[in-house]
Specification:
- This protein has 727 residues and is an alpha+beta fold.
- It has five domains: 62 residues, Orthogonal Bundle (Arc Repressor Mutant, subunit A); 175 residues, Rossmann fold; 87 residues, Translation factors (Elongation Factor Tu (Ef-tu), domain 3, Beta Barrel); 100 residues, Translation initiation factor IF- 2, domain 3 (Rossmann fold, 3-Layer(aba) Sandwich), CATH 3.40.50.10050; 101 residues, Beta Barrel (Elongation Factor Tu (Ef-tu), domain 3), CATH 2.40.30.10.
- The protein has 18 helices and 35 strands.
- Helix 1 packs across helix 2, helix 4 crosses helix 5 and helix 9 runs parallel beside helix 10.
- The termini are far apart.
- Its main location: mitochondrion.
- Keywords: GTP-binding, Initiation factor, Mitochondrion, Nucleotide-binding, Protein biosynthesis, Transit peptide.
Length: 727
C-alpha cells in the first residue's frame, strides 16, 4: 500500500471514531451547548456543525473529508444530471390537443391522463395516445390534477396557397393540332376471345402467356395496319373481379370494340361493358367472335343486345357489327377497317406541343428497374428528362419503353409507353402532368399531402364526434341510474365501474383472436391488387371469422412480408409474384403460409379454404335408433328408487356406448348416457329393431308413456364460410 493511500485510510478511520463519539454524545442527550460551524475547504458540503467536544478534531474531520472530495464530487455530479421533472402549476392548453400532447404539457405520463378520463363520459376503449380530446375534457383533466390552465395564444394560420399542378387550357388552334392514333378498348365477358383477337391483330402470342388463358391486367399495344394507320389497343380483363380496370380503360379510350361469343350470347360482363361505354360516352363496334363454331348464332346475339340499347346498323342503329373468328383470323381486316373508318369520322387530333398530359393505365414494380407505369399520352410529347407528377408521387423520366420492352426516345399523343424513374408507384388511373422542375414537383407533392391530411383530419373528427355522441347518451343513462346518490358517491361508483378499463388497456398489441384471418396481399401490378381488394371489400361474414388486411402492395414476397405475417399470425397471398428459395425457407422456419396464384378465382378459392380452416367445427348429430316408451316402473337399488322405462325399438338400434336423448311433446327433456340397458333380465350392449328392453338414465327422471328415446352419434364437421364473392 502506498504512503498516500495509507494516510487517507488512517484519516478515514479517525473520522469514523469521531462520528462514533458524536453518536455517543447524542445518546446522552447533550443539548444546549454552542455548536461550531467547521468550514470544509474545496468540498461541496461547505461546512458542518460540530459539538464543542468535537472542536479539537475538526481539522481531522475536514482533512479526511477533503481527501474524499473527488468521490463526493462525482456522486453530486450524477445527482445533478438526474433532473426530476417538476409539475408546473399552470398548464398551457389549446384546442384539438391529443392525449400525448396534454401529458407532455402537464409533465405527466399518459396513464395519468387515462385515469383522469375515468371521471368523464369518454369511452377509454376508443382512446389512443394520438386521439384528440374535447376542450371541456382537457380543462377537467387539468383541474382534477390540481393545476390551473391557461389558453395558449392562437397563431394565426395563413391560408395556404394552392400550389397544385393543373391541366392546361384546351386550345383548338388547327396549326398546333395533329392527327393521333385512336385508342381502342376491347371489352367483353371472360373467355369470349378478347386477347385472342388482339393477338391475331398484332401477330404475337400473348394469350398463351396468360395464366389459364385469362387476361389478368391491362395490356396496351400499337397495331400497325397495312394501310399505314396505327391503332392503340387496350386489352382489359373480362373477369368479374376487374370491373374497376374495365372502367378505367373506357375513360381513356375513343372507341370500344365489344366482343361477344356467338355461341354464348350476352353475359354478365357484356352488360357491364356496355354500361361502361355508355357512361364514358364512347361509340361501340360489335365483334361477334367464334363464328366458325357449328353452334354459333350471330343473329341471336344482335337481338339480345337490343334489350340493352345496342342497335346494329341492319336494325336501323349506328353500331357496326362484324362476324369474326379470332382464332382462325377470319374478317379481322374488316374489323380493323371499321375501326379506322369510325376514327376518321371522330377526327381525332391532339396538341403534341407544350407540357405533357396523360393517364396511368397500369403500374408495377420491377426488381431491376424499380416502379414502372404504363401510360397513354394525351397531350404534349414525353421525352427523357421530363419531370412528371401523378397522384402522390413524381418522377424524372429516366427511360421510356414501348410494349415490346424496347427503349424509345419519345412518345406522342395516343401512344402507350412504359415510364421508368418514379420515386414511388402511383395508382392506376392517376392523371399524369408535366411540371417545369423537380422543385415544382416537390411543391405539388407538399400541397397534395397537405390536402390529404386535412381531409383525413376532417373525417377523423367526424368519427370521433359520432362516437363521443353515442357514448354521451350511454353516460347520461348511467348518470340517471346514479341520480339518487350524492356527488361523492356517484363519482366513487363511476370510478369503481370503469377502473378495470384503465388497467386492461393494452400497452402493446394484444394477441390476435384465433377467429381472425390476417392477410398480406402482394400483386404484380396495381390493378391486380386493386381487384383483389375490391373482392375482399365484399366480405360480409365478420360474425363467422374476422378478415383483416395487414398490408398490400406490389412486387415479390420479401422478408418484411414474412415479419408482418409472423407478428399478426397472418397468411401471405401473392398474385402473379414470386418468392425465392431463401424467403420460402424463412417462411417454413417461422411457420408462415405463402400462397402464390396466377389465376384470380383460384386465389379466392384458396382464401375461402383458409377462412374455413379458421372456423370452429360444428357438431352434427346422426340418429342411430329410435324407441318408444310403452310402460314405466321403478326398481330399488340400495336406498335409491330408480325409474325404468320399458321400450320397444322401432327404428335402427340402441347402442349403450352412444349418447341418448329423451323427447316429450317434441321437446328435448334430457341428453346424456344410459346407466343400464337390459333385455329381460340380461344386461346387453345393443338392442335391435323390434326388440323390447328396459333402460334407465344417468339422471333421476320420471318417464311418461309415449316418450321417445333417441340414440345418436355426435360427429364434428368442418364449417364452411357463407361468403359469396360473386363468382
Amino acid at each position: 500500500m502506498s504512503r498516500g493511500l495509507l494516510l487517507r485510510f488512517e484519516n478515514l478511520v479517525q473520522l469514523r471514531g469521531a462520528c462514533l463519539q458524536l453518536r455517543a454524545l447524542s445518546s446522552r442527550k447533550v443539548y444546549g451547548a454552542q455548536w461550531k460551524p467547521v468550514q470544509l475547504s474545496a468540498h461541496p458540503m461547505g461546512s458542518l456543525f460540530l459539538h464543542p467536544q468535537l472542536w479539537p478534531k475538526h481539522r481531522l474531520i475536514s482533512a479526511a473529508l477533503s481527501q474524499c472530495r473527488h468521490l463526493a464530487t462525482k456522486e453530486e455530479t450524477k445527482k445533478k444530471k438526474k433532473k426530476v421533472p417538476l409539475t408546473r402549476g399552470e398548464v398551457e392548453i389549446r384546442q384539438k390537443m391529443t392525449v400525448e400532447e396534454l401529458a407532455q404539457a402537464m409533465g405527466k405520463d399518459i396513464d395519468h391522463i387515462y385515469e383522469a378520463l375515468l371521471y368523464t363520459d369518454v369511452n377509454l376503449d376508443s382512446v389512443e395516445p394520438d386521439s384528440i380530446l374535447n376542450e371541456d375534457h382537457i380543462k377537467m383533466i387539468v383541474q382534477k390534477s390540481g393545476m390551473k390552465y391557461k389558453s395558449a395564444k392562437l397563431k394565426e394560420e395563413k391560408e395556404r396557397k394552392n400550389t397544385d399542378a393543373v391541366k392546361r387550357q384546351v386550345v383548338n388552334y388547327p396549326a398546333v393540332l395533329t392527327p393521333r392514333p385512336p385508342v381502342v378498348t376491347i371489352l367483353g365477358h371472360v373467355d369470349h376471345g378478347k386477347t385472342t383477337l388482339l393477338d391475331s391483330l398484332r401477330k404475337t402470342q400473348v394469350a398463351s402467356m396468360e395464366a389459364g388463358g385469362i387476361t389478368q391486367h391491362i395490356g396496351a399495344f400499337i397495331v400497325h395496319m397495312p394501310s399505314g394507320e396505327k391503332i392503340t389497343f387496350l386489352d382489359t380483363p373480362g373477369h368479374a373481379a376487374f370491373s374497376a380496370m374495365r372502367a378505367r380503360g373506357t375513360n381513356v379510350t375513343d372507341i370500344v370494340i365489344l366482343v361477344v361469343a356467338a355461341e354464348d350470347g350476352v353475359m354478365q360482363q357484356t352488360i357491364e361493358s356496355i354500361q361502361h361505354a355508355k357512361n364514358a360516352g364512347v361509340p361501340l363496334i360489335l365483334a361477334i367472335n367464334k363464328c366458325d363454331k357449328p353452334e354459333a348464332d350471330p343473329e341471336r346475339v344482335k337481338k339480345e343486345l337490343l334489350a340493352h340499347d345496342v342497335v346494329c346498323e341492319e336494325f336501323g342503329g349506328d353500331v357496326q357489327a362484324v362476324n369474326i373468328s379470332a382464332l382462325k383470323g377470319e374478317n379481322l381486316m374488316v374489323l380493323a377497317e371499321a375501326t379506322v373508318a369510325l376514327a376518321e369520322m371522330l377526327e381525332l387530333k391532339a396538341d403534341a406541343t407544350g407540357l405533357v398530359e396523360g393517364t396511368i393505365i397500369e403500374s408495377r414494380k420491377d426488381k431491376g428497374k424499380g416502379p414502372l407505369t404504363t401510360a397513354i399520352i394525351q397531350r404534349g410529347t414525353l421525352r427523357k428528362g421530363c419531370v412528371l407528377v401523378a397522384g402522390k408521387t413524381w418522377a424524372k423520366v429516366r427511360f421510356l419503353f414501348d410494349e415490346n420492352g424496347k427503349a424509345v426516345d419519345s412518345a406522342s399523343p395516343g401512344i402507350p409507353v412504359e415510364i421508368m424513374g418514379w420515386k414511388e408507384s402511383p395508382s392506376a388511373g392517376d392523371e399524369i402532368l408535366e411540371v417545369e422542375s423537380e422543385q415544382r414537383a416537390q411543391e405539388v407533392m407538399a400541397w397534395r399531402t397537405y390536402v390529404e391530411q386535412q381531409e383525413r383530419m376532417k373525417k377523423d373528427l367526424e368519427v370521433i364526434e359520432a362516437k363521443q355522441k353515442e357514448h354521451r347518451v350511454e353516460y347520461e343513462k348511467q348518470q340517471q341510474q346514479l341520480a339518487h346518490l350524492t356527488w361523492r358517491q356517484r363519482k366513487a361508483a363511476l370510478y369503481k365501474a370503469n377502473k378495470h378499463l384503465m388497467f386492461s388497456r393494452p400497452k402493446e398489441r394484444a394477441e390476435m383472436d384465433e377467429n381472425t384471418l390476417s392477410l398480406i396481399v402482394k400483386g404484380d401490378v396495381d390493378g391486380s391488387v386493386e381487384a383483389i381488394l375490391n373482392i375482399l371489400d365484399s366480405y360480409d361474414c365478420e360474425d363467422e371469422c374476422k378478415l383483416e388486411i395487414v398490408y398490400f402492395g406490389m412486387g415479390d414476397i420479401t422478408e418484411n412480408d414474412i415479419s408482418l405475417a409472423e407478428a399478426f399470425n397472418g397468411v401471405i397471398f401473392g398474385f402473379s409474384v414470386k418468392a425465392n428459395e431463401s424467403i420460402k425457407k424463412l417462411a417454413d422456419k417461422k411457420g408462415i403460409k405463402i400462397k402464390l396464384h396466377n389465376i384470380i378465382y383460384k386465389l379466392i378459392e384458396d382464401l375461402k379454404d383458409e377462412l374455413n380452416s379458421r372456423l370452429p367445427p360444428t357438431v352434427v348429430e346422426t340418429t342411430i335408433g329410435q324407441a318408444s316408451v310403452l310402460d314405466t316402473f321403478s326398481v330399488t337399488v340400495g336406498k335409491n328408487r330408480i325409474p325404468v322405462a320399458g321400450c320397444r325399438v322401432h327404428k335402427g338400434l340402441l347402442d349403450r356406448k352412444m349418447k341418448f336423448k329423451l323427447i316429450r311433446n317434441r321437446d328435448v327433456i334430457w341428453k346424456g348416457c344410459l346407466s343400464s340397458l337390459k333385455h329381460h333380465k340380461d344386461d346387453v350392449q345393443v338392442i335391435k329393431t323390434g326388440m323390447d328392453c328396459g333402460l334407465s338414465l344417468d339422471k333421476n327422471l320420471e318417464f311418461n308413456i309415449g316418450d321417445e328415446i333417441i340414440c345418436y352419434e355426435e360427429k364434428e364437421v368442418q364449417q364452411t364460410t357463407s361468403w359469396d364473392p360473386g363468382f
